[in-house]
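Dear colleagues,

As part of the handover before I leave the project, I'm documenting each prediction I ran so the next person doesn't have to rerun anything. This entry is a single chain, and its sequence is reproduced below.
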Amino acid sequence: MDTELPRQPYTLVYGTHPVVPRVLEELQRVGDPVVLVAPATPAGVHREDLELLVGDPCEDGIVQRSEPTRANRALIACTEDADTLVVAVAIHSLAPKLEIYALTQSPRVARALQELGVTHTLASDELVGHTLAKSLETPEAGDLLLQLVDTETYRLGERPVDEALVSRPLSEARATAGSLVLGIARDGHVDLGVGDDPVLSAGDTLIVLDALS
């Protein structure tokens, strides 16, 4: 079955991990065009809300048909880590500069994916374990994390550092940005500026929490 890909840059989602319906819901809420590459439409997903490319994401031909060179980002959300590795290799060979995100079960696989060129990895077991542990220590911690990522009032975002803030401390950006600045992203790492006040550079990105209008 032929699938007409969006003309504008789109988000590619590969796989049928149980979190895929929720991810698609969030992406559609902010209006991002999405192409799902999966053997079938996952339960709870409305076919009319996205483009579905039917097929096994582990097949090179299916990945080629998704045209990752036209996408602005890709999420690998397979149920098996072995499949995630296969898809990552296929995408990176076709679109080495594409920003790739991957959901894994193991921190060890997450490190392997980074070596394969995956931009961002998230080990689900590690995330859930840390979140539950922090919630036990500080009951409100879990609620805080949920407020940051699951709310219709605020939205997490990224913003390049303005030229006027280059060589200035992070505290100055927090005082003038007009948003809640949570930290900075630098060379693939996040600095919250707790205990120190890092100096901003031209390549840094501010991680901000904005109120939705």
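The domain at 152-211 is CATH 3.30.70.1450 (Alpha-Beta Plaits). The chain has a mean pLDDT of 83.

All the best with the project,
I.
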